[in-house]
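To whoever is on call:

I kicked off a structure prediction for a single chain this morning and the downstream step that reads the tokens threw a length-mismatch warning. I double-checked the sequence; it's 312 residues and nothing unusual in it as far as I can see. Pasting both halves so you can look.
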Amino acid sequence: MALLSVSLRTETSSGNLHEKRAEVFMCDNVDIAIIGGSGVYDVNLLDRVKEVDMDTPFGKPSDSITVGEHGGTKVCFLPRHGLGHRYSPSEVPYRANIFALKKLGVKRIISASAVGSLREEYAPLDIVVPDQLYDRTRLRKSTFFEDGIVVHMGFADPFCPQMSKMIVDIASSKGYSVKEGGTYVCMEGPQFSTRAESRVYQTLGFDIIGMTAIPEAKLAREAEICYSMIATVTDYDVWKDEDVTIEVIIENAMKNEVAVRDIISGIIKNIPSERACSCKDALNGAIATVHSMIPDETRTRLGPLIGRYMEQ
């Protein structure tokens, strides 16, 4: 159990936020985290709400983390781009975000993401639960493991199958148009694709396109956190000879807000206590460096990630 100093802003009976300093024991505190845009964060979903301001060895997360309860399940929300959408996709502090969630005890992450469609049958306002990723980024740090430690982690199936199946089942049961499976190609951004790029991605067999799943999914796997996505289609990218604008994307993302919140609520209510997947043991056998040769400073810094393996 780790002791972490944080700043808490708790909700009073009048609805105002009261800030105080506290020493909080962080271990198995939060069951599930939602990462996404501001439209997903409906505080009315949660009881006993507080905001937690954290530091990590990789800097501060995108913003303070909202923590609360929903039907007895502890849930936290993190705005990927920060409140007000301050961080470009390449500037998001992904490592700080995932490390902070790990320190909060998070076991599962649902990413709520707006995407473009590369297939006619994946129409705007559809929901896609992808099962594969293709990395086209080039400017982002995609691992926690450096400074004297090497980890070669399996990443063949980047999304948690248990969580993804639950998302599909719940979305379908609620009558939403949901597509199961598909490959998400992650581009660098922040510019949208050229028509040539969009058509090449189609030729390569990709299904949806976005800018944020990498390195988020890789880091979640390194942190042994289950990671799945609710991808909401906002447009057909530019392969269909239609211009893509931020206005169109925001308009369609807003239309899907209610659906995303409804699905998330269903997941929280039905989340199993045990994880029946390999995500929880992703580092088992993956640390290539002889343990005795890992620098003490690195061991300490990465303690929340590798501590249980260093004791073996």
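Update from on-call: the warning came from a stale cache, not from the record. Cleared it. Sanity check on the structure: The chain has one domain: 2-310.
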